[in-house]
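Title: Comparing notes on inverse folding

I've been comparing how different people in this forum approach sequence design from structure. To keep things fair, I'm posting one structure and asking everyone to reply with a full sequence. Here's the target:
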């Protein structure tokens, strides 16, 4: 029975009206467990308001952690199976050297003692500014073992941004990756009176700290510091990307991480625990996502927790990353939709160069239909792939799908995808090509994923169901609210004496808009602060249009406009690799982007893409005009955050003339 409308206001703002009030169910309540296949899923508990699902909850798969911390994980692994390979380091000759659980624990212990020898005390903040590399994860666990709080700094941050994070967090030490990063901070040192240590990986300071600790500090000191840590102890301050205003530090505890990864590991059993059925290979992953972001950190912690072999790829250059994938050959990958889009587009471009574009398109269509048929069977709404579809898929597997999997190392079977919506068509393509995509949604404030697509029950085009132990609520205005053990304590504010709570009655308002379907699957519809209101009063969520257009092989970035304007328009930037390929296929020479702004053939292709995107929305919400910019949005220019989100106000300022041109100014 629907809740009466008189209760809607309290429902949107308070947990008191939750149907799940009172003690949580016992861990794994509602789940049967098969140690080989993993948990057998049950449907989320849902709550309706005026006929719509407004709250969904999935019970936890594991009991909450009541003692211990992340600092214990390397030592627990070493005690349980000292010879198990838990990480791999890149060699100078391009190969990989395995690191056993015992070796990693020994390195963590030595480095933790080195940090203690340098005078760092429990609760001190140590910042790390580096790309994704082995030393980052080593330093993370060593800092925790020494009782410290780590503060990630994105390696491309400007000196002023770095100074702000160091000042706000009160960091007493900074480990940079390169000498250049340390030197760039030189002019800011007068403003960083609390920064006592500046170390550089490039100069061997990680090894020197470990050598110092080996002789200067007894092992017992680390054991004592580990012993006083608990689930409520702060583990890290992760600063949000700051799309508007200065970034804020999210205070995440050891318990936040353990709640997140323990439930994710159990839910994603085929990813983290199951051996590959055909080869018997143990799970492994190559991490290339920035460790300065919570997604990458969460994956690294989950791998150490689960004993999954973890490698690091510091370079995001296409050739470097493909080489790393080919040599490491992971069984699963954490990724963002942009990467999956480009792999698909590059595969099609390769086929087109070989004169096989139509063959690829047929194979892609078969893959999508196959993925959708499997989805329907898993949800009980269809019989599954027909005999003809199975035959067609087998035929195209050798010609197309195997090439896609080979580009990802050849052994890949799972992708954990987050950061922005992937889209139904692309998710279905990868499912049909033999790669399960577990799409998720979350924020820094939720220690990563709050929802995820469960194994064997995807709903393509959504970001899945609540992670076990998590509640998702849709407020009266459509805002997504989150509650669970992985939701952070609050924002760091040194002027207020520490952490300032950011939840109301246990619910965190995300600023994102979404909806829940009848089965508790979440779909993201936009950002609350980025909703556009046209001059005619029409409310427009730009995200669906932007995400669709960004998936086009000729488009790099897109920003939809229309706030206070008579109609909706868009700024589009070009993917020059895709455009160059398109021109070559049409017998034309590559030219710089500035010469393509008014190209009629290109404009026609982009117009068709805009027309397709407009089918997602009503006519008043559709894009009426667009303009192609001569440059791309970049983080260096300040147009994108480090997580590739557009800084809307900066873009509007820098391209004001082009914006006015769209509206006849």
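Reply #1:
Here's my take.
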């Amino acid at each position: 029975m629907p809740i009466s409308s008189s209760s809607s206001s309290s429902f949107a703002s308070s947990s008191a009206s939750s149907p799940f009030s009172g003690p949580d169910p016992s861990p794994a309540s509602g789940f049967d467990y098969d140690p080989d296949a993993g948990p057998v899923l049950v449907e989320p508990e849902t709550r309706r308001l005026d006929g719509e699902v407004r709250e969904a909850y999935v019970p936890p798969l594991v009991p909450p952690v009541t003692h211990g911390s992340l600092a214990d994980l390397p030592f627990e692994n070493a005690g349980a199976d000292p010879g198990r390979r838990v990480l791999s380091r890149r060699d100078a000759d391009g190969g990989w050297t395995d690191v056993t659980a015992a070796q990693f624990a020994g390195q963590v212990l030595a480095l933790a003692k080195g940090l203690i020898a340098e005078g760092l005390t429990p609760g001190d903040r140590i910042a790390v500014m580096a790309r994704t590399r082995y030393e980052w994860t080593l330093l993370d666990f060593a800092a925790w073992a020494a009782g410290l709080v780590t503060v990630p700094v994105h390696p491309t941050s400007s000196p002023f941004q770095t100074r702000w994070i160091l000042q706000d967090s009160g960091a007493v030490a900074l480990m940079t990756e390169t000498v250049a990063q340390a030197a760039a901070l030189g002019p800011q040192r007068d403003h960083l009176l609390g920064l006592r240590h500046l170390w550089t990986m490039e100069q061997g300071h990680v090894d020197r700290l470990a050598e110092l600790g080996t002789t200067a500090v007894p092992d017992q000191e680390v054991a004592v510091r580990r012993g006083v840590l608990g689930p409520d102890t702060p583990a890290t301050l992760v600063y949000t990307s700051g799309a508007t205003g200065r970034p804020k530090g999210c205070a995440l505890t050891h318990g936040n991480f353990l709640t997140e990864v323990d439930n994710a590991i159990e839910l994603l059993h085929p990813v983290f625990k199951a051996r590959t059925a055909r080869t018997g290979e143990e799970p492994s992953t190559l991490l290339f996502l920035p460790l300065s972001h919570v997604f990458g950190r969460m994956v690294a912690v989950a791998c150490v927790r689960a004993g999954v072999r973890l490698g690091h790829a510091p370079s995001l250059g296409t050739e470097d990353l493909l080489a790393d994938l080919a040599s490491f050959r992971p069984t699963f990958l954490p990724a963002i939709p942009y990467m999956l889009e480009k792999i698909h587009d590059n595969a099609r471009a390769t086929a087109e160069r070989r004169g096989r574009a139509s063959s690829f398109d047929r194979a892609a269509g078969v893959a999508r239909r196959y993925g959708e048929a499997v989805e329907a069977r898993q949800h009980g709404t269809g019989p599954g792939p027909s005999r003809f579809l199975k035959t067609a898929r087998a035929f195209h597997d050798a010609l197309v799908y195997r090439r896609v999997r080979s580009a990802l190392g050849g052994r890949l079977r799972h992708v954990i995808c987050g950061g922005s919506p992937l889209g139904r068509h692309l998710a279905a393509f990868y499912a049909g090509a033999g790669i399960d995509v577990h799409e998720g949604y979350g924020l820094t404030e939720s220690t990563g994923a709050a929802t995820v697509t469960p194994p064997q029950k995807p709903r393509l085009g959504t970001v899945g169901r609540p992670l076990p132990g998590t509640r998702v609520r849709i407020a009266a205005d459509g805002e997504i609210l989150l509650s669970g053990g992985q939701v952070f304590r609050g924002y760091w504010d040194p002027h207020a004496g520490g952490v300032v709570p950011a939840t109301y009655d246990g619910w965190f308002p995300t600023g994102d808009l979404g909806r829940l379907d009848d089965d508790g699957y979440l779909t993201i519809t936009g950002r609350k602060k980025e909703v556009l209101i046209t001059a005619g009063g029409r409310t427009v969520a730009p995200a669906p249009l932007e995400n669709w257009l960004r998936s086009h092989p000729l488009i790099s970035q897109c920003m939809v406009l229309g706030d206070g304007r008579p109609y909706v328009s868009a700024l589009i930037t070009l993917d020059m690799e895709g455009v160059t390929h398109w021109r070559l296929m049409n017998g034309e020479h590559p030219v710089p982007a500035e010469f393509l702004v008014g190209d009629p053939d290109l404009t026609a292709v982009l117009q068709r893409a805009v027309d397709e995107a407009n089918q997602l929305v009503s006519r008043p919400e559709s894009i009426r005009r667009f303009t192609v910019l001569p440059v791309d949005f970049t983080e260096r220019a300040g147009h994108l955050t480090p997580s590739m989100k557009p800084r809307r106000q900066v873009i509007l300022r820098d391209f004001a003339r082009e914006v006015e041109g769209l509206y006849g100014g």
